[in-house]
Amino acid sequence: MNTHIASLYLISAGALAMSAFQSALVARNSSYGRACRAFAVICLTFACFQYANVQQQLAPGLAEAIAAHKWVNIFSLLLAPQFCYLVASLDPSRTAFRLTYGIAFISAVLAVDNFMMTFGYRFSALATDGPTELLLWGGQAFLLYGETTAAYAVSRLLSLGAAAFAVVYCVRVQRQKARFSNRLVWSSAALVVVTTALGGATDTGMLRMPYLSGFGFLFLAASYLLLVRREATQRLTEKARISAALERELENHKLSSRRIERALTNDELTRLPNREGALEKLRTMFAWSESSLTRTAVLLLDLDRLAIINGTRGYETGNQVLIEVAQRLREHCGKRRLVARLGSARFAVGIAGHKTLAGIEREVEGVLAAIKAPFSVADTVLNMTFSAGVAIYPDHANSAEDLLASAGLALHEARDLGPGNLRVFHPSLQQSLSERIGLENELKEALENGELFLHYQPQVCAVTERVLGMEALIRWQHPELGLVMPDKFIPLAEATGTIAAIGAWVIESACQQLQDWRALGFHEVRMAVNLSAQQLLLSDLGDNVQAALRRAGLMGADLELEITESVLMQDPQRSIEKLESLRDLGVRLSIDDFGTGYSSLGYLKMLPVHSFKLDRSFVRDIGSSEKDLEICATAVGLARNLGLEIVAEGVEDAVQADQLRQLGCNLLQGYYFARPLPAHAATNFLMDQVAAAA
Q1: pLDDT at site 469
Q2: pTM for this one?
Q3: Which residues, in sequence order, are CB contacts of 631 under 8 Å at separation 6+?
């Protein structure tokens, strides 16, 4: 045989062995592991097939050539079931494996027949007994050919069946555009089919050439491995991408965890510690206080009327106020001290390092002074006040949680006393808070249970003492506590949010009562109703007032709404807008407790009100105090200059009435004329006045 041709066979055998090794390696990282391992076995079988061909063609005699030819037959018989198994491993159907097992059984039978027959299973008789001249290549080699057997026909059918099975699968995956629908692979498969067919021509003696199917498969092996390696590379790339994505996700998770941890211990708006952060800092301060034998105090600050700012100016303005408060506290206290925001309008300041209460008091005074100045927000100057509560460790509590709770009790007491108050914790506050909580719960049911009712106090003309108005004053008949005055439960109603329902009920009931009096002929009397601070926040306040007037058949001028001066001065500009919307309904407006809110003359001139109500604190000592008399005279003169009516409340004797009359007050109200009366008593009072005039 031509040694160059033999070298090509041996080189192809080596290349196929290397392909088997590479396919086995690729199987570890490929999603087609079973197919890659099957392909590795096929490569090894073809390598053995090529080597057996070399042994046959270089055999020194016929006997040696026949012996080598039988091994060529064995390896060729192994290829058909192996190819079927390869295709079956790519096809999820069970039918493919059943076909593979059938072909394997037939191949095993043929393999046994191969060693039992003299010339192998292919030939029943040989047409050659020596080396044959090779076409194309030149030289001689043992090429066996002759009369073929029935077993050979069966093997050819097996080969054709395996080829047809592979072709059907190729067409299907080509339509599905699967990963192994590469044209190079199928072109190489076609080459294997062609070279195998040429081998059949060699067996019958039609062609004088050695078996070339091994070379055809070498192209298939190269193209298949190229495709599988590319798929494995893509898989590894995808795996690396996923790993990188997982690492990024893990890093993002760590960042998110840190952000969540910060969010759990810090306030997002002010960047101050929140309640949890404050507790952690307090525990550290406690440890330091114990080692240094000093006291630690907590100052709780509650921004009064923040809800009014949010309701009238918007939450953005309210947030800017909170940020400004936080900045002032940080600048005053520095980074070492605790400054935290515990809630909507509540701040906490930690004070440590003092052995005496006097040192803590000075610290508290300094903090309050730092936040006292007006706030300039959104081109508006806001005069804000703070309620404050103080608790001290170890005097009032032994833990951080208890210290905050104690300071909170002190703060509650300060708020009950009105805006701008400061209180220090004392043990009796615990009981007071329990009573307050019980009262809050009972107040929620008081309106439904009919426990709330109105009293009416007359407002008389200063000259004729004829009744021109009635002020509706709410009362609570508690089933156990008896009569509860509004200064006790109105703050609770504001704190619990029930003020909206209670306020609407007061306006409705007062209008209905005035309708009853109008039906009795009292056409000159108008009704005055107090508005709380929280009621000004209600967006539907105007609708409620208009609806109550319509149901009672009253005009807007029949109703007068009284608003406390201190509430108006929290945000004068927004208050003016609110009052103007109410005045557009025709409702009369009055400033209650005039003289206590430190109103500037400029704002007073701009307020769209009809009257001022002189506070009782000035009226009380008008007969004995020149200063109070001068204040009243100034207020009356101011009202006259502004074209407004002035009502003096708290008139308790004739002397006060005469002096206020001489000063020029328009209306007088107080115990001197009548106490607040139930509806039927107020009706009798009006009737008695008419009877006396007749």
Answers
A1: 93
A2: 0.51
A3: 595, 618
